[in-house]
Design brief:
- The chain is built from four helices and no strands.
- The protein has about 120 residues and is an all-alpha fold.
- Helix 3 runs antiparallel to helix 4.
- It is globular and about 50 Å long.
- The two termini are about 25 Å apart.
Length: about 120
């Protein structure tokens, strides 16, 4: 995951994203306490067996949950605190790149393992 995020950083940098401007961004609106990971997650095993394809493909279910998580993140967190009518260009780029990556990854998954995606997963 770290290499993926480093790659994102290179993309954003290449597109002109800056972190040293002092401007308020979605990151400045995040509450670090909401990301406290002291409690162990004991529900994921059961959950991955209930979503998408069910118990038969837990790894595929995890991957699809990563895609869902990426899309939920850009939908609900990126742009946090910004005026919806005036979305900054960096926020647009993050949303666009995430959508592009998820759709491209889904296409690759569909091409490589078409039989593994049930109607519910699709």
């Amino acid at each position: 995951l770290q290499s993926v995020y480093e790659e994102y950083g290179r993309y954003f940098s290449g597109l002109g994203a800056r972190t040293d401007s002092g401007a308020k961004t979605f990151v400045s609106h995040l509450d670090p306490m909401r990301f406290d990971q002291r409690d162990n997650d004991v529900r994921s095993t059961n959950y991955y067996g209930q979503v998408f394809n069910g118990k038969g493909t837990p790894d595929l279910n995890r991957l699809l949950m990563v895609f869902r998580g990426l899309m939920n993140f850009v939908d609900s967190m990126v742009g946090l605190g910004a005026d919806a009518n005036e979305v900054e260009y960096t926020v647009f780029k993050i949303r666009f790149l995430t959508l592009y990556q998820v759709l491209g990854s889904l296409q690759m998954l569909h091409d490589e393992r078409p039989g593994d995606l049930t109607t519910q997963s699709t």
